[in-house]
């Protein structure tokens, strides 16, 4: 499947805030930190949330101390919960609806992430037993995501994550097996702040690696497996992520990059990344 077809196949995994009731601004708890300017208990609306479910500081999130909101992406969970599960209801309607939505939203967010990865996995393997397994798992997760509120609230999403994670690991291994000059795997490695400028990481598994603040300028990350890698503030300027596996838009948005960063074809360049040297900021 060409990259533009993968983008189209993920269309329903794109947040549509106009069809949501601000669930990401209500359901999670925030702890005052570099990501959020305030403490907020779970299940209570953020002080910046407007009555029409828009954010009152949307255009100034970083300046106002909410960069964590820029990075967050529900991958379409918000509109699924609001429209498909609750038929357009609002958590403001009554406490029971608010409580039920709070229970369902985190589960749906996990399912939409699994769908994101499984739809990519389907494009990576040739027809055969492994591809069949991906297709079956994808159909199963789609069915779970279409469940009723009580079914979703009772779902053990963690168990499904583990099973899908195992399958994605086998897909990853099959894809990376023949990568020329494949670098050694650093799965789950603590690489916080690591000096990896120009590092040869082609085809490596960096699954679940902690790359917070790592210097990855000019690194070769082609066909690297980045499932769940923590890329917050990692410097990807000039890095080559062509064909990188299982990377999500929120991971990318949390990193630092510029126009010289080469991206997997189905991902978008974050709008806040630095412009090319000499380019004028608008
Ligand atoms: S600052 Fe805006 S985007 Fe962030 S939680 Fe509050 S209302 Fe939502």
TrEMBL record:
Residues 258-282 are annotated as: Disordered. InterPro entries: 5peptide_repeat, Pentapeptide-BTB/POZ_domain. Pfam families: Pentapeptide. This is Pentapeptide repeat-containing protein. It comes from Modestobacter italicus (strain DSM 44449 / CECT 9708 / BC 501).
């Amino acid at each position: 499947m060409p990259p533009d077809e993968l983008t189209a196949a993920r269309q329903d995994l794109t947040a549509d805030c106009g069809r949501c009731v601000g669930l990401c601004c209500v359901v999670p708890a925030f702890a005052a930190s570099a990501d959020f300017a305030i403490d907020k208990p779970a299940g209570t609306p953020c002080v910046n949330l407007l009555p029409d479910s828009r954010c009152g500081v949307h255009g100034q999130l970083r300046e106002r101390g909410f960069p964590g909101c820029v990075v967050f992406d529900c991958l379409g969970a918000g509109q699924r919960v609001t429209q498909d599960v609750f038929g357009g209801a609002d958590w403001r309607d009554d406490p029971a609806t608010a409580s039920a939505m709070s229970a369902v939203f985190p589960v749906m967010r996990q399912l939409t992430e699994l769908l994101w990865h499984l739809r990519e996995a389907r494009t990576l393997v040739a027809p055969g037993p492994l591809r069949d397994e991906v297709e079956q798992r994808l159909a199963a997760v789609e069915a779970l995501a279409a469940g009723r509120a009580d079914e979703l609230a009772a779902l053990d999403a963690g168990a499904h994550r583990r099973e899908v994670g195992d399958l994605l690991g086998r897909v990853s291994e099959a894809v990376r097996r023949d990568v020329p000059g494949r670098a050694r795997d650093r799965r789950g490695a603590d690489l916080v702040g690591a000096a990896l400028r120009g590092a040869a990481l082609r085809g490596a598994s960096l699954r679940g690696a902690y790359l917070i603040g790592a210097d990855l300028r000019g690194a070769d990350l082609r066909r690297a497996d980045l499932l769940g890698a923590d890329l917050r503030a990692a410097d990807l300027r000039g890095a080559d992520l062509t064909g990188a596996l299982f990377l999500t838009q929120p991971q990318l948005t949390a990193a630092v990059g510029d126009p010289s960063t080469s991206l997997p074809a189905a991902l978008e360049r974050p709008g806040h990344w630095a412009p090319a040297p000499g380019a004028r900021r608008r």
